[in-house]
Amino acid sequence: MSGFPWGQLSCELWLGLLGLAMLSADLLIRDRTKAHYVGYLGLVGLMIGLVPAAGSCSPDGVSPLLFGGSYAVDRFQIFFRLFAIIQSILIIVLSFDYLEHIRLDRGVYFTLIVFGTLAMVLLTGSRDLVMIYLVIEFLSITSYLLAGFLLGSDKPAMGEIKRSLEASLKYLIYGAVSSAVMVYGFSLMYGMAGSTSLEAIGRAYAAPGTELVKLTALIMALAGFTYKISAVPFHQWAPDVYQGAPTPVSAFLAVGSKGAAIAVMVRFLTLATGSFADHWQMVLALVAVCTMFVGNLLALLQSNLKRLLAYSGVAHAGYLLVGLVANDEGNRGVQAMLLYLMVYLLMTIGAFAVVVWHQRRTGSEDIEAMAGLARSQPLMAVTMTVLLLSLTGIPPTAGFIGKLHLLLLTVNVKFAWLGVMIIVNSAISLYYYWNIVRVMWLLPPSDEPLPRRREAQWAAGVAYICGLLTLLAGLQFGPLRDLADAPLDTAVNNAAAR
């Protein structure tokens, strides 16, 4: 009888213990003004967690499949372990500058971020329908709570508090509906395969017959996944939730939650319905195109930075889906998607960091409040400009490298028209991204005096780091491409071994 895989699950176990330690520390801290120390504990713990996340504690030569194949600790999952922990480190750092908005249960706030990270890691290794559903609900519950965390006791903050609670409630309702539809699709798959294993479902999909039932079950299952990545038609929650939630939580949802959902979609579509690709590719391609256009066109109308970034995130979900749709036998589509996901992490968290800094400086989230920023804060204006150019996909930024890999992928397959859609939508996005640049560099600053507030140094540091890495990754993208290439071997072999 083999022992428990302590080494392979060292990252998951560490995150679970870290979350429990943070809860215990929060209970022991009597002075509630010092509850942010729990955040410092989480930050240090997540940094240490990078070691087991990289697979350093896992013995060589062991099978990546655990618990009867329901969970995988392969190179694909190791990539997303690192992705989830890195983004959570940045989110916690951003939160230190946002604590003036969070007056109650600060320790619980930081603990929920760590437990949300654990849910993301578990989701990326799940290979069983029951486990996928349970972990999605785990991640969703932590997200619902975090979205409504703008708590306070002073009357001037009541408007913001109500907006946060409204965002949390909307998120819960949309999540409940999409989860119900997804579970019904899962039940149809279980009925066909007689098992909840993705590999068993893959064998059922490879067998002839019941094509309509298979397609119906697949579309219903995709409802839950597309909801988590805010793809059309399950994108409506994103702008309201992003605007109402604490800004670091908005970044958490935009990056971490989306990345975990992309990971489980890759496993699900590759293992369970790989033989059914001719059917779901066209469905997912139409979803990708609609997601791009809806996100970009609605972003043109926004005056609030967080709502604009929400619709921008919707559009980027469409770009990411192109990599999955145009995937080939060499899994180059997955590689391009993972590379773009790492780029998306840098430029999106960097942009939200500027929003946190901007909120602290002006007390506003409006684009017009950034007028004249280049004169008063030229370094921050340059950083935001680099991040916006990267989001557009203009060289020499990392965003250009990410979109270029997706475009090169579409040239050699039957989905070349998707490459045209990426170019058209990038041109549309240039308008609303460049509008922010215009406001920062060309408009005069407002004559109204700025409120006296402590400088958001943590947020500024995150913005500068993300901006610098976005520029460096565009100039020297070899390491980023190698990182995205690493997970492909096991992902392909697992699919081929079915």
Which key terms come to mind for this protein?
498 residues, mainly alpha
Summarize the model shown.
With 498 residues, the chain is mainly alpha-helical.
Task: Specify the structural class.
Answer: mainly alpha
Question: What is the overall number of helices?
Answer: 20
What is the helix fraction of residues, given as a range? over 70%
Whole-angstrom Rg: 22 Å
Domains, number: 1
Q: Order of strands across the biggest sheet?
A: 1-2
For the record, give the distance between the C-alpha atoms at the N and C termini, rounded to a whole number.
25 Å
The fraction of residues assigned to DSSP E strands is under 5%
Order of helices and strands: HHEEHHHHHHHHHHHHHHHHHH
For the sheet with most strands, the description reads: 2 strands, antiparallel
Task: Let me know the average pLDDT.
Answer: 86
Anisotropy-based shape = globular
The number of distinct β-strands equals 2
Structure description:
There is one protein chain. This protein has 498 residues and is mainly α. The chain has one domain. The chain contains 20 helices and 2 strands. It has a two-stranded antiparallel sheet with strand order 1-2. Strand 1 and strand 2 (71-72) form a beta hairpin. Helix 9 (237-244) runs antiparallel to helix 10, helix 9 packs across helix 12 and helix 13 (332-362) packs antiparallel against helix 18 (457-475). 55% of the residues are buried. The model is unreliable at 152-158 and 488-498 (pLDDT under 50).
